[in-house]
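ok so i was messing around last nite and threw this chain in just to see what happens. nothing serious, just curious
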Amino acid sequence: MVPLLAQAANVQEQMAESPAVKAAVEELVLANHILYDQNAVDGYGHISIRNPNNPTTFFLARSVAPSVVTVADIMEFDMNGKALHGDTRTAYGERFIHSGILRNRPDINSVIHGHAAPILPYGMTGSTLKPVYHMSAFLGEGAPIFEIRNFAKPNIDTDMFVSNNDLGDALSKTMGLQYFVLMRGHGYAAGADSIKKAVFRSVYAIQNASIQSEAMKMGTVQYLTPGEATASQETIEKTIGRPWQLWSERVKKP
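result:
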């Protein structure tokens, strides 16, 4: 049963009543700052978290730069990307990336979208972004590529934005059961069951792209085998509290 509080109370009221919501929102704010500090997002880009008290809604900042997000900026949305509680502030136009993935992937609770330059070539050249080291093992056998031209209607020439529920669904289906998807000519989306893990995956997918690009210049790249990727992911993702501590301390310093 969905708590009545989650249905009726706005974000600030839910935080006051629920330690779980308060912790989720505060961690969401911190994650915005970390993503900017780690060059996973720039003035654009965003991260969401599913409401821990109501799996049919999620929290996402209003349309501001990630580096300046505060608790007061957090809005709540339903799984169609509609703002709740009569909140009329300007929302991110691509909130449908979040609603699409969260709606279709119950195992994912946090979604990130950004435009980090190192990953962009892999969405447009046919070279597959694959794990070259243990930190990026979650990439599995390679990141799928969302081609918006295959889903845009009625005209295949779009502004490249995932700006409605149909495109959000299409992006989610392209992602499949993986945790990272490239968007041709645009950027990436990453997902995980927690904010910490979603941030970890974004940061290390981007690092993997940089390392892979350099390695490809030198010769034949030895990628992780599927077995290596599975074993490495299980091991390394038990330790993500360590980089999270490092990143948190960096952005919290005056």
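not much to say yet. Residues 1-6 have pLDDT under 50 and may be disordered.
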